[in-house]
Inverse folding.
């Protein structure tokens, strides 16, 4: 999913047009390559890969048709078992902007699922708005930002590092997996615009092909570089490099020498932006400024909770630590600002610009309910309960909705709590749906505790839901304790 090294009129796909996505056939070739002439100003790499993609046994090459006319493609590839790679998404410009990508994506996904994926990834140019929007809408997360660089090879001269031998494998794997380059790319390494995982298996494979270079030649090595041959441009592509600055520079120059040895005139690099890309650029990969790539992965890595989306976990964590986050960013900005700044103003700036003002949202969303309450005591109780949901458990924003009659709190897509107003009391109902967590002998401060009989779990003797009747400020403590109990039970059930 990249620009190759080498951007009408509109046709509406109204219901009277028939749209389909099916397996590609050899007969699609001409129409697809014709379509490809209209992509990226004629610089699409599709002509270089279509035949090979069609012949591939694993994965699937798809053709998009409108009224039987082949107008687009999508490719599902398998880089290693469980490692699915998406590429080749194309649509004739006549059909852009009509929301068709959603339908192509659905069909692509059906093919991806057949490959029993552990991970699904793809990459795109940082400026490809449509492609990035598609990623965001479909639950993909950025795992790496890299720069694509090209350098002209110099005259032939000896390589300064040495090719790693089979006996180096363990040391190389330890080096790679502990390196900042590996961390910056979340464990993938580019070969062209494809980013396979740098597993031990892959490192071993590259090593066996003589594509792992270490430095110095003798003794323990301080720096490692790895390259592979790109399938599209047939280029020597540097995908991993790390070590002290001078050694990185030396190994990057080695890569240009290695490319020269093979008779190539250029070499490429796909490396993380920042220190590594700067060093590689300065070492001679300087034909142009890095073209920036984003690597996307479906789902967020490192997160195993199945019920609650990663985004919700993060925003809840942010909300429950908002004050600390504000302080940290404010301190950092004040330390680096060229003039002295007042902390309150800096915090206010951050809130206005970067962090949603949850307090304002909170007050705003419950205002009607709050004002409809008859006494100050009830208002204080409500404030205590809501603040506890927000400050202790990070529940606010979308998790909290209110009308004049009821406040509802949801957690992981399910109703967690409701607060209803009576003339002289608030009724806080917690659960059900988060486990039988309330023991029948539970003592919490409240004017009344009503267990919901239907939620009794016979095995444990506990209830999954209760209502607390709150009439005094001291009942805030009872309410917060009951909330903590249900939140703990919810966390344990993840
Ligand atoms: C990528 C491509 C297939 C998308 O097809 P499409 O039918 O035009 O996409 P859609 O109309 O379904 O739009 C997808 C989303 O991107 C948005 N989008 C599309 N073009 C956009 C642009 N130029 N700027 C900002 N957003 C854009 C759409 O608004 C839509 O988001 P929304 O649903 O929130 O409104 C098509 O643009 C294409 O063939 N591009 C050239 C090849 C390419 O770049 N392939 C991807 C390589 S990684």
């Amino acid at each position: 999913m990249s620009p190759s090294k080498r951007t009408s009129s509109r046709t509406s796909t109204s219901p009277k047009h028939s749209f389909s996505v099916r397996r590609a056939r050899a007969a699609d070739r001409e129409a697809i390559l014709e379509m490809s002439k209209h992509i990226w100003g004629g610089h699409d790499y599709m002509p270089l890969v279509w035949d090979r993609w069609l012949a591939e046994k694993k994965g699937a090459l798809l053709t998009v048709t409108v009224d039987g006319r082949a107008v687009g493609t999508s490719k599902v590839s398998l880089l290693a078992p469980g490692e699915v790679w998406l590429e080749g998404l194309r649509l004739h410009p006549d059909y852009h902007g009509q929301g068709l990508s959603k339908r192509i994506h659905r069909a692509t996904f059906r093919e991806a699922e057949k490959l029993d994926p552990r991970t699904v990834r793809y990459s795109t140019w940082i400026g490809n708005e449509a492609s990035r929007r598609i990623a965001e809408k479909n639950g993909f997360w950025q795992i790496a930002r890299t720069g694509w660089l090209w350098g002209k090879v110099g005259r032939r001269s000896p390589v300064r590092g040495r090719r790693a031998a089979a006996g180096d494998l363990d040391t190389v794997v330890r080096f790679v997996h502990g390196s900042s380059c590996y961390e910056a790319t979340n464990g993938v390494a580019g070969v062209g615009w494809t980013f396979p995982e740098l597993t031990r298996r892959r490192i071993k494979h590259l090593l066996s092909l003589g594509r792992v270079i270490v430095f110095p030649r003798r003794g323990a090595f301080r720096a490692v570089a790895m390259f592979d041959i790109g399938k599209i441009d047939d280029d020597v592509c540097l995908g991993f490099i790390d070590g002290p600055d001078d050694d990185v520079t030396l190994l990057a120059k080695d890569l240009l020498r290695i490319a020269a040895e093979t008779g190539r005139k250029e070499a490429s690099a796909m490396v993380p932006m920042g220190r590594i890309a700067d060093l590689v650029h300065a070492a001679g990969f300087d034909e142009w400024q890095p073209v920036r790539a984003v690597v996307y992965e479906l789902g967020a890595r490192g997160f195993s909770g199945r019920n609650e989306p990663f985004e919700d976990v993060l925003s809840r964590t942010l909300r429950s630590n908002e004050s600390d986050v504000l302080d940290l960013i404010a301190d950092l900005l004040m330390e680096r600002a060229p003039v002295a700044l007042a902390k309150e103003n800096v915090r206010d700036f951050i809130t206005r610009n970067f962090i949603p003002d949850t307090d304002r949202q909170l007050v705003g969303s419950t205002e009607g309910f709050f004002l409809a309450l008859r006494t100050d005591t009830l208002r204080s109780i409500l404030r205590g309960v809501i603040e506890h949901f927000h400050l202790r458990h990070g529940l606010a924003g979308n998790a909290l909705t209110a009308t004049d009659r009821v406040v509802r709190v949801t957690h992981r897509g399910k109703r967690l709590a409701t607060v209803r107003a009576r003339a002289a009391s608030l009724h806080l109902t917690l659960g059900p749906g988060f486990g039988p967590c309330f023991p029948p002998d539970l003592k919490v401060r409240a004017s009344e505790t009503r267990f919901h009989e239907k939620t009794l779990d016979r095995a444990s003797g506990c209830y999954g839901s209760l209502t607390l009747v709150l009439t005094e400020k001291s009942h805030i403590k009872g309410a917060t304790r009951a909330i903590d109990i249900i939140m703990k039970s919810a966390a344990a059930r993840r």
Summary: The chain has a mean pLDDT of 92. Residues 146-298 form a domain with the Aminopeptidase fold (CATH 3.40.630.30). The radius of gyration is 29 Å. The longest helix spans residues 376-393.
